[in-house]
């Protein structure tokens, strides 16, 4: 009975330590990045993947500063926004093309085509709204 209690107590303590070790959410900047890489390295079992993460961890420990991390994050955000803006521009071009085709179909009296292009226009406008929310 004593042995079981010690084992259960050891499990509770180990679980508590593990929970503390894996919670990087309270950290910021380089400390958070290092913590996340340590947790990831500990979780991996495949040797090559573990080696890659450990290499990244060593490089992060050696080179990371909160300033260059913030600059990197800003660059990633800017790149993401550029991709979103490009997709929005493409959707707007699609809308313009569909509006042109709709006008042509209207002139020809092809109401089924008019409805088709109206749906496409609405779909592209909805896509744009979703993309803008992604920014």
Beta-strand content bin:
under 5%
Oligomeric state of the chains present here: single chain
Distance between the termini: 59 Å
Query: What integer value in Å does the Rg equal?
Result: 27 Å
Total count of domains: 2
Instruction: Please report the number of helical segments.
Output: 5
Task: Tell me, briefly, the overall form.
Answer: elongated
Q: Which percent bin holds the helix content?
A: over 70%
**Major beta sheet, specifics?**
none
* Low-pLDDT stretches: 1-20
Mean pLDDT: 88
Total beta strand runs: 0
SSE succession: HHHHH
| Helix/strand/pairing category | mainly alpha
List the helices and strands and how they pair.
Blueprint: H1 2-22, H2 29-43, H3 47-63, H4 66-108, H5 111-134
Name the features.
135 residues, mainly alpha, elongated
Summarize it:
The protein is an all-alpha fold and 135 residues long. It is built from five helices and no strands. Helix content is 89%, strand content 0%.
């Amino acid at each position: 009975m004593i042995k079981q209690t010690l084992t259960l107590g050891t499990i509770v303590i180990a679980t508590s330590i593990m929970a503390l070790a894996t919670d990087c959410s309270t950290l910021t900047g380089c400390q958070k990045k290092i913590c996340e890489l340590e947790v990831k390295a500990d979780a991996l079992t495949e040797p090559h993947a573990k080696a890659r993460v450990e290499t990244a961890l060593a490089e992060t420990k050696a080179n990371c500063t909160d300033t260059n991390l913030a600059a990197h994050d800003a660059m990633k955000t800017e790149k993401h926004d550029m991709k979103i803006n490009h997709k929005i521009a493409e959707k707007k071009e699609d809308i313009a093309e569909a509006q042109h085709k709709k006008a042509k179909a209207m002139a020809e009296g092809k109401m089924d085509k008019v409805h088709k292009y109206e749906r496409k226009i609405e779909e592209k406008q909805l896509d744009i709204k979703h993309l803008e929310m992604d920014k």
